[in-house]
Amino acid sequence: MSKLKGLVLAGGTGTRLRPITHTSAKQLVPLANKPILFYGLESLREAGVVEVGIIVGETRNEVMSAIGDGSAFGLDVTYIGQDEPLGLAHCVAIAREFLQESDFVMFLGDNLIKDGITEFANQFRARRPDVVAEILLAKVADPHRFGVAELDSDKQVIRLVEKPKNPPSDLALVGVYFFDKTIHEAVAAIKPSSRGELEITDAIQWMIDNGKKIGSQQISGYWKDLGQPEALLEGNRLVLEDLVPKMAGTCDEDSIIDGRVVVEDGVRLIRSRVRGPAIIGAGTKLVDTFVGPFTSIGAGCELISTELENCIVLQGSTIEGVSRLEGSVLGKSVTIRKRQILPRATRLVVGDHSIIELI
């Protein structure tokens, strides 16, 4: 097995996930109570990648604290600082010293590929040195929203188009790319785009225009860019489908657990019902509460006289007296409660980029 390094991009600010990402790196937002970034790191290790460079930006301290030296994942991690987001190809440029002459896989830290990348990594290794790069593609219903690839009859990439009005195909670029050292020459040759960034699509197109073979592989399983709340909820549902039941908390005689549910240490269920798939984080307390399917509750939360389903609730949050909450993402230490004093008006303290839907 040829050596393959990893380059993981974890420097974005996550503007589409605000206000959650005002206080948390988007790559560390959890699915089934595990940060998105962890799934990517685990898939790299499963693919035989050990040396990983992680691009970090404004949220570097949080990312570095969560990952450490990488030993918990079986990885050897090097952190590479990016002062401002100047494009994916810029990430390759600043990682040049780490990457050296090695083949490598570049992985966007907020992407979820359910079945991992082992098969794709092995295919790339097998096709070297005939191809200098391979891109992963997925069929999408709305290709005009993505970078799109045009292929020849041998599935070689002949053209890349960024968010085209008239897409040449329905094959969108997934946030995973395999490269050999040729990419460094390409990155050095391109200029910033109209938005002031070095685009990886421009670098790949440069290689195509200079006679290099760029292969492609198509993802048939689940892939998602988790940059929006709806995508987070969809990813959370997918991960919870594979949940292995666990009961490490306490459950009184008036509480019921149905289906695949993980109840972590220190959880207390009092006159409550949890219907899986669902996960309840350590130290959380449920009183007179119903937790429905596809819900992740973080550690140290308190839910009283509440019903919720298909939700992500981050650590330290309190929900009390809410009759029905569905399809919601709540950040850390959020408080939602029914107003008990007159007048019975709705009272909100809402941050930037929040979404409120009232009935």
Please tag this protein with its features.
alpha/beta, Spore Coat Polysaccharide Biosynthesis Protein SpsA, Chain A, UDP N-Acetylglucosamine Acyltransferase, domain 1, 2 domains, 8 helices, 30 strands
Number of strands: 30
Contiguous runs where pLDDT drops below 50 for at least 5 residues? 14-19
- Largest sheet, order of strands side by side? 5-4-1-6-11-8-12
Shape: elongated
Number of domains: 2
What's the CATH class label of the largest domain? Alpha Beta
Global structural class:
alpha/beta
Rounded mean pLDDT score: 88
Describe the protein in words.
By secondary structure, the chain is α/β, with parallel strands linked by helices. It has 2 domains: 5-239, Spore Coat Polysaccharide Biosynthesis Protein SpsA, Chain A (Alpha-Beta Complex); 244-337, Hexapeptide repeat proteins (UDP N-Acetylglucosamine Acyltransferase, domain 1), CATH 2.160.10.10. It has helices at 36-46, 60-67, 88-94, 96-99, 118-127, 182-189, 200-209, 229-240, and strands at 5-10, 30-31, 34-35, 51-56, 76-81, 104-108, 111-113, 133-139, 147-151, 157-162, 171-179, 214-218, 223-225, 246-247, 250-251, 256-258, 261-263, 268-270, 273-275, 278-280, 285-287, 290-291, 295-297, 302-304, 307-309, 312-313, 318-320, 325-326, 329-330, 335-337. The strands form 7 sheets. Strands 5-4-1-6-11-8-12 form a 7-stranded mixed β-sheet, with helices on both faces. Strands 14-17-20-23-26-29 form a 6-stranded parallel β-sheet. Strands 15-18-21-24-27-30 form a 6-stranded parallel β-sheet, with no helix packed on it.
